[in-house]
Write a structure and sequence with these properties.
Chain lengths: ~220, ~140
């Protein structure tokens, strides 16, 4: 395993980080299951270092329909943005699953943003808090915000060519999820800029050392 | 403590198979296994296909399976192993504590262990597994 001074993570760091995310998302999915009463299915997370633009494209290519996103910024030992992304129609179905089957379309529309923000908050907070605990650091989370639009817009790049940082590299991780017996599917994604990736790398190394028993927990 | 030289009638050591796509997660499980059961033989597989090959190609008495893996997940693998090895102690390990996951593990007579795996939780499963193996080896 090379330890060269590139922006990348070593194989073991990437493995450990993916495992952290996996544990965080799995726990968050269990909380979502409590809210909606049916099983939440998860994919295996993938972690890549790409430009912000490429991250937007990755989601955009998979989803033609307009998207709705709940996002939360986090800062502390490392910083970035966590996003819960759904096709807009699926977002409404999720509101129904959380808030009640018998809601009229008008009621769903009235509740939609609030219910999405609350659901997103539980999932994103759950995932980030688990990761922070395992890394033994504190993260502070902003209040959830909601954005609608296509891939570039939800990744905050709707200013087009002039968008700041479109070429900047980010750590991009995403995981697909779906809800059994319901037409709900979406993505959980996390974007981290590279200065905080330096910190993260250090924390992941400590986490690996603890996991392998080289340090006292 | 055990006598170092084993009598000719000594039972063959227990072999445990650790299946996880994460190298780190496997390393953690192996480390805990070595602490709790230093005399057991540990084999590793990175996915369900490798695990099936490992079981077909050599002894496996106990299996520790991660749930969320690319390809076949740990519960599907548990089902396959259970069909072939009705009495084998199997644990499914996941942070995904959804009722359906735990219920499915129970249906397959597999123990559910929460991730991150702790020595205490693993020791409990291994004690049960040891008893079960001893019973099935007793004529």
């Amino acid at each position: 395993m090379s330890d060269e001074a590139t922006i990348g993570l070593t194989e073991l760091q990437q493995d450990a980080f993916t495992e952290l995310v996996n544990i965080g998302v799995s726990r968050a999915a269990a909380s979502l299951r409590q809210m909606i009463g049916t099983q939440v299915l998860l994919s295996v997370p993938s972690v890549e270092i790409v430009s912000r633009q490429a991250a937007a494209r990755l989601i955009g290519e998979r989803e033609a329909a307009p998207l709705v996103v709940v996002h939360q910024d986090f800062e502390g030992a490392f910083a970035g943005r966590a996003l819960l992304i759904f096709p807009q129609e699926n977002g409404r179905e999720l509101v129904r699953a959380v808030a009640g089957e018998d809601l009229s379309p008008e009621e769903v529309a009235a509740l939609e943003d609030e219910a999405l923000a609350e659901t997103g908050n539980i999932i994103l907070n759950g995932c980030l808090a688990t990761m922070a605990n395992m890394l033994q650091r504190t993260l502070t989370m902003s209040l959830p915000g909601i954005v609608r639009g296509d891939g570039p817009r939800i990744f905050g790049m709707d200013a087009g060519e002039a968008a700041p940082g479109a070429d900047a590299l980010v750590l991009f991780l995403y995981i697909d999820f779906s809800v059994s017996e319901r037409d709900i599917r979406g993505y959980l994604a996390m974007l981290m800029d590279l200065p905080s990736l330096e910190n993260l790398r250090m924390l992941v190394d400590e986490f690996i050392a603890r996991a392998l028993g080289d340090l006292d927990a | 403590m055990l006598v170092m030289s084993q009598p000719p009638t000594a039972p063959t050591p227990v072999t445990v198979l650790v299946v996880d796509d994460s190298k780190l997660a496997r390393a953690v499980a192996v480390r805990l296994l070595r602490q709790i059961r230093p005399d057991w033989v540990v084999r590793e597989a990175a996915n369900a296909d490798e695990a099936v090959k490992a079981v077909a190609g050599g002894p496996v008495d106990v299996a520790l399976l991660d749930f969320n893996m690319p390809g076949k997940d740990g519960l599907a693998l548990a089902e396959e192993l259970r069909a072939e090895r009705p009495g084998m102690p199997i644990a499914v390990i996941s942070a995904n504590i959804q009722d359906e996951v735990i219920a499915r593990a129970r249906e397959l007579e597999a123990t559910f262990l929460a991730k991150p795996l702790t020595g205490d939780a693993l020791a409990g499963f291994l004690s049960g597994a040891t008893l079960r193996l001893r019973r099935s080896n007793t004529p």
